Ras-related protein Rab-23 (Drosophila hydei), 242 residues
Amino acid sequence: MTNTMERERMVIVGNGGVGKSSMIQRYCKGIFTKDYKKTIGVDFLERQIEIDGEDVRIMLWDTAGQEEFDCITKAYYRGAQASVLVFSTTDRASFDAIKEWKRKVENECNEIPTVIVQNKIDLIEQAVVSADEVETLAKMLNCRLIRTSVKEDINVASVFRYLATKCHQLMTQTYDQVTSGNNSTQQTSTHPPYSNAPTISAFSPTFTKSSSGTIVLRPAKKSSGSSAARKRKIVLKKCGIL
Ligand SMILES: Nc1nc2c(ncn2[C@@H]2O[C@H](COP(=O)(O)OP(=O)(O)OP(=O)(O)O)[C@@H](O)[C@H]2O)c(=O)[nH]1
């Protein structure tokens, strides 16, 4: 592991009990526990994955869902490159709070790639939100929607791979702009267009492309670390992006 490895910092927010800590534990440690242990303030775990043949370290900040911790947690939103807004299928208030969570994150770090996660999809029979209203909210907030079950390990990895890929693309664009000396009018938006983004559905855990718009998330192809990739890392480091 070199100190030039790309690092992507993500924050996971949402009401208490929606499954944020469970999601991070599932992704980073491969475990799930039924016990509910309230997060006090913030917690942190990381995992290394490969995107486009490059090693990327994903740093996941788990934040407390209770408002009483807001002043502590908001300090951790700063500098985040992506965010995950989580609500639970069985908790109406957590769904209603999603807009507010997005606002809180944006107050600290402007617009960053963001995913809305509807967790506990294994409890769909006890759902207190309809599929339509969830999809409408995601469109309105211009966010990708991913339905997950941390318990059944459905789509959890898709959430983080999707965001890591977005962050990686943004870093690559920044690199291209720096190396081509283009810092004028052709500035690319830091927020990709999501309005027509398909939903990643918990009902297609095999991630095959379906007519309903479910998208395919394939593992990145391994490539031998090219000299271009190495140069890119050096430039990114010099730009203070790493
Ligand atoms: N059925 C089901 N239960 C889940 C799922 N994900 C998490 N849980 C349970 O939901 C409860 C709360 O999960 P946590 O991960 O602690 O929730 P949190 O959002 O981190 O909560 P705070 O720390 O209070 O913000 C735990 O009992 C988990 O076992 C899921 O996908 N399905």
